[in-house]
Amino acid sequence: MNRIKEWLKEGGFSDFDRFVREHNFDFIIAMKEHYRRGLYLADKQKMCLNPNFPKNVLPKEIEDLSMSILNPLSLTKIKEGSFILDVGCGAGVDCFLASKTVGTKGLVIGIDPTEILIERANFLKDKYKISNVEFKIGNSDPLPFEDNFFDIITMNYSFHLVKDKLKSLVELKRVLKPDGQIVIGDSFMPSKIGFVNKPEEWFYRAGGAVSPDEFQEIAKKAGFRECSFTKKDYPELPELIAGYMVLTK
Ligand SMILES: C[S@@+](CC[C@H](N)C(=O)[O-])C[C@H]1O[C@@H](n2cnc3c(N)ncnc32)[C@H](O)[C@@H]1O
After folding, report:
1. Element (H, E) at 203
2. What is the distance between the alpha carbons of residues 68 and 207, in angstroms, rounded to a whole number?
3. DSSP H or E stretch at residue 183
4. Which pLDDT belongs to residue 4?
């Protein structure tokens, strides 16, 4: 715990609240700053903090950049030739993982609004010569893709950051093939703390999260046929409600 506190201090997180206030609670600026500091810390700690990320499949410098505690790909029907979209891909960790399975006939696209993370993802793609992966700067709404394009869409700990959750789910559905599948791994434990009152909650404690019931209600409104929740237990955090929402069109 002390080690984590030290990292956070070193990354400048102790004055993060003030930083956010000085920027007039601008959500996008604060979020990008949060992930700039997060990348700095991930580089420094040199270990993968995600207990569910498959170990020794990717180069360690990629594996160590996972900024989630989940692995949505593990619930997908990914296969050779699949077209995959990862929304909120961060430094591209899950995209690189997916690229191993889809092979040369498949394609993986990662999209994320934080430029510094996309820069890192592109750097790693070039360094390890991974040709079936592409990265774009952007967010979940609107998605710059044609209708019915992807077999599988994943989001790994990024959905709670999405402000208009209904609009984003409608967008995800639009670009998904009719027989496609979406897997969203996230916290589903709403803190009910608004960004303006407690900005740091949005980033440290997934303050924008919705409950499983709320999510399923939004998915219904977005027109999804099925939406099931699989909870993932964390023995050290018994109160945490985190897991996977699996959606079909
Ligand atoms: C906790 S990180 C997870 C990154 C990556 N999925 C991983 O597992 O390492 C959350 C990511 O969501 C991105 N994000 C924030 N708002 C978003 C939005 N509206 N649409 C898509 N991605 C978003 C952030 O830039 C950040 O990279």
Report:
1. helix 199-204
2. 15
3. strand 176-187
4. 60
Alpha carbon of 87 to ligand 1 centroid (Å): 7
Q: How many domains does the chain have?
A: 1
Is the full-model pTM beyond 0.70? Answer: yes
User: Could you give the CA distance from residue 170 to residue 47 in angstroms, rounded to a whole number?
Assistant: 36
> Residue whose CA is closest, atom 23 of ligand 1?
88
- Indicate which residue's Cα is closest to atom 15 of ligand 1: 161
Q: In angstroms, what is the span from residue 89 Cα to ligand 1's centroid? A: 6
**Token pair for residue 28?**
């996008």
Instruction: Write the CA distances from 173 to 10, 139, 220, 226, integer angstroms.
Output: 40, 15, 11, 12
pLDDT digits (tens, 9 = 90+) for 89-138: 999 999 999 999 999 999 999 999 999 999 999 999 999 999 999 999 99
The domain in which residue 60 lies consists of 2-248
Q: Which helix (H) or strand (E) holds 187?
A: strand 176-187
Q: How far is CA 151 from CA 92, 96, 123, 170, 244, in A?
A: 18, 17, 26, 16, 18
Model pLDDT, residue 155: 98
Whichever domain contains 223, its CATH number is: 3.40.50.150
86 near 111, Cβ under 8 Å?
A: yes
Q: What CA–CA distance (Å, rounded) separates 207 from 202?
A: 4
